[in-house]
């Protein structure tokens, strides 16, 4: 039976997908999506697909020899989302090419609707049109498109930890709108420690010159 696809995913889903890379712009880059099965696992974790649907998605991709191409499409979408919202976070316009890629993802996996019976009731079922990966990628692309056209766009930030190349993008939901770090306990704390160390070194250097 067709399962319902969330036609209104959260505005942060696309950003979360972009953040499946740790230290994107640094020397310690670590990719959480190394395989098609890891994409499926992430989609389950985010509630895009139910866990009991994963075996059929994995089997279909394997039978169609589509695992590599599906993962390649997923990574293309992820990098496109990152480039779009990194540009926005730096008060720049996303490139026409990247917006075009996002549009292609939205059109490649069109959502169709049909009526299904569940027990004694009837309801709508919405499913993406094609590809083993379509069920997972369409809500992600939709989330990015919704954010790009929303009044929350001005709250998109990129983590200020450029020295280590964090590269995570996020929605600043603070009242002041001045959030700088992806996490206060992660990059924020690292920045505080680094600033303290630099102050300590400057003070020590000054004291040495004076003496």
Please provide a written account of the structure.
The chain contains seven helices and six strands. It has 211 residues and is α+β, with helices and mostly antiparallel strands. The chain has a domain at 13-153. The strands form three sheets. Strands 1-2 form a two-stranded antiparallel ribbon. Strand 3 (111-118) and strand 4 form a beta hairpin. The N and C termini lie far apart (80 Å).
Biggest sheet strand line-up: 1-2
Which term fits the overall shape?
globular
Tally of strands: 6
State the secondary-structure class: alpha+beta
Give the uncertain stretches in residue-range form. Answer: none
DSSP summary: helix tally? 7
User: Main beta sheet: strand number and arrangement?
Assistant: 2 strands, antiparallel
Rounded average pLDDT: 86
How helix-rich are the residues, as a percent range?
40-55%
In terms of DSSP E residues, the strand content is 5-15%
What is the succession of H and E elements? HEEHHHHEEHEEH
Q: What distance lies between the first and last C-alpha atoms, to the nearest angstrom?
A: 80 Å
Radius of gyration: 21 Å
Topology, element by element:
Layout: H1 13-18, E1 21-22, E2 30-31, H2 36-45, H3 54-63, H4 67-89, H5 96-108, E3 111-118, E4 121-128, H6 134-148, E5 156-158, E6 169-171, H7 187-210
Antiparallel strand pairs: 1-2, 3-4, 5-6
Helix pairs in contact: 4-5, 4-6, 5-6
């Amino acid at each position: 039976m067709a399962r319902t696809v969330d036609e209104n995913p959260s505005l942060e889903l696309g950003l979360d997908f972009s953040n499946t890379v740790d230290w994107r712009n640094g020397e310690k880059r670590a990719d959480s999506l190394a395989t098609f099965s890891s994409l499926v696992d992430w989609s389950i974790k985010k509630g895009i697909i139910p866990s009991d649907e994963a075996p059929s998605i994995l089997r279909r991709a394997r039978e169609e020899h589509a695992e590599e191409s599906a993962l390649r499409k997923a990574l293309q979408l992820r990098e496109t989302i990152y480039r779009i919202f990194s540009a926005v976070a730096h008060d720049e316009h996303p490139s026409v090419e990247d917006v075009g890629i996002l549009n292609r993802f939205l059109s490649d996996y069109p959502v169709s609707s049909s009526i299904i019976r569940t027990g004694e009731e009837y309801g709508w079922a919405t499913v993406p049109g094609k590809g083993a990966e379509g069920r997972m990628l369409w809500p992600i692309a939709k989330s990015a498109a919704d954010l790009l056209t929303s009044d929350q766009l001005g709250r998109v930030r990129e983590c200020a930890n450029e020295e280590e190349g964090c590269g995570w993008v996020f929605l600043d939901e603070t009242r002041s709108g001045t959030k700088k770090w992806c996490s206060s306990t992660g990059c924020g704390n690292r920045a505080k420690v680094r600033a303290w160390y630099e102050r300590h070194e400057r003070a020590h250097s000054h004291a040495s010159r004076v003496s």
